[in-house]
Amino acid sequence: MASTLADTLAVGDPEAFAALYDRLAARLFNTARILTSAGDAEDIVHHLFVELARSRQRLAGVVDLEAYVFTMLRHAISRRRRRFAIDRKALGRIAAERLRAGGSRESPPRLPDDELAAVMHTSLNTAASRYR
Fold first, then answer.
1. pTM above 0.70, yes or no
2. Minimal CA–CA distance to 38: which of 28, 25, 26, 29?
3. Nearest to 92 by CA among 82, 105, 79
4. pLDDT tens for residues 83-125?
5. Which of 62, 73, 76 is closest to 27 using CA atoms?
6. Nearest residue to 45 (alpha-carbon basis) of 19, 24, 67
7. I want to staple 32 with a disulfide (CB 3.0 to 4.6 A). Which of 9, 41, 87, 97 is the partner?
8. Residue 90 and residue 122: Cα distance in Å, rounded?
9. 10 Å Cβ neighbour count for 5?
10. Comparing C-alpha atoms, which of 85, 78, 86 is closest to residue 44?
């Protein structure tokens, strides 16, 4: 029985991961960029390939690898959107608390970057770009 790319990936063959990346990365990025921002698309596709490598054993026996990977992309984008909505609510609560404490509505809450990233459950760079 011939080994599929998914089976080769499942055993951790670096050349198989390179082949998969060469085959799908541009399409994954373009799809993610249509549905999110360019910066988020880069992060999502990067994390998708990291997740594929980490959970490679799940790939054994996958019949349609391309469909599997694009489904992973769809789920990653959905998770990112939910996280963004939660982050916006958290920032709204912070702004409301600042107003109650006598702050100005005109100026956004001034928090150290690391605190903002912690509230948003994301990296400092992502928190800064979303804040801007």
1. no
2. 29
3. 105
4. 888 888 888 888 788 778 775 555 555 555 566 666 666 766 6
5. 73
6. 24
7. 41
8. 13
9. 17
10. 78
